[in-house]
Amino acid sequence: MMVDGWNVRALSTGRFRLDGGAMFGNVPKVLWSRKHAADDKNRIELELRVLLAEGHGRRVLVDTGTGNQWDAKEQAIFDVAAGDEPGVCSALRAAGVDPADITDVVITHLHFDHAGGVTRRGSDGPVLTFPKARHHVQRTNMETASAPNEREKASYLVRTVGPLSGADLHLVDGGEEILPGVFVEPSDGHTTGLQTVRVGAGDGAVVFVADMFPTAAHVPPAWTMGYDLCPRTLMKEKRAILERAVRSGWALVLEHDPFRDAVRVMEKDGRFEAAEDVAIQ
Ligand SMILES: [Zn+2]
Asked: Which helix (H) or strand (E) holds 247?
């Protein structure tokens, strides 16, 4: 899909499973299980989608999947693969892109299922997967990931965050146009310093909303996750994005949705819902 001189594609870096109850917070299972069937461990299957934007002399990757540094116990819990290289590298090659040619890695936040592929297993511990790339992350997210609170300790992993101190690191303070026509906006409801990534200045932009809207089922503001740090903050932030998305025909890319890359949304009787599936390719 072409947007403002960027060729934008959604790529699958693999799948994993998380507890369905945790994914839907206080939404009853009788409601969420109609949209996502649970397995015998109450887990639902989720996508690990990333965005590739090529243009303006840059190759930009938004998020990196879970990476491949998983021990046997973690693989069993999350039903996650640990291949010879991070899934994001295989996904890039399948799309005809050499991982060494990535110029920018935009990290929505440093939770392991978004930034796990930022590092890979080296002979002497974790090393950067994209050592030549510029890495863009919100300063407040880097701070919270470096000294995580008790609630999020299991999501911010030292093997992901540690090597970033040696990266070409752009610590972003709030909203910014980080590349021509690529805008990041901060959000604090899911975790401190998440950033959404919008490609396109005008109508019809593509917006990578990360864990603010992990699946299409999470479009209604009140359908939040048990993982969210501040659901009330998140509901306000979701509403603000939804209002702009309806007005401007934005495609919201759904990082964890196993059924569709993205949706356009509509408002009906004061309620927001997914109106149309959009393929980002
Ligand atoms: Zn997250």
From this structure: helix 231-248
| Residue 8 phi, psi dihedral angles, 5° rounding | -110, 130
pLDDT bucket at 25, cuts 50 / 70 / 90: very high
- How many angstroms does the Cα of residue 126 sit away from the middle of ligand 1? 21
C-alpha of residue 227 to centroid of ligand 1, in Å: 8
Distance 256 CA to ligand 1 centre (A): 10
Give the domain range for residue 140.
2-278
| Number of domains into which the chain is organized | 1
Cβ < 5 A residues, ion ligand 1:
111, 211
Instruction: Write the CATH number for 52.
Output: 3.60.15.10
How many angstroms separate the CA atoms of 272 and 241, rounded? 11
Distance in Å, CA 114 to ligand 1 centroid: 7
Q: Which residues pair with residue 207 across a beta bridge?
A: 198, 252
Q: What's the pLDDT tens digit per position in 169-216?
A: 999 999 999 999 999 999 999 999 999 999 999 999 999 999 999 999
Q: What is the pTM of this model?
A: 0.97
Q: How far is the CA of 269 from the centre of ligand 1 (A)?
A: 30
| Ligand 1 midpoint to CA 190 (Å) | 7
CA 111, 70, 257, 22 dihedral sign is negative
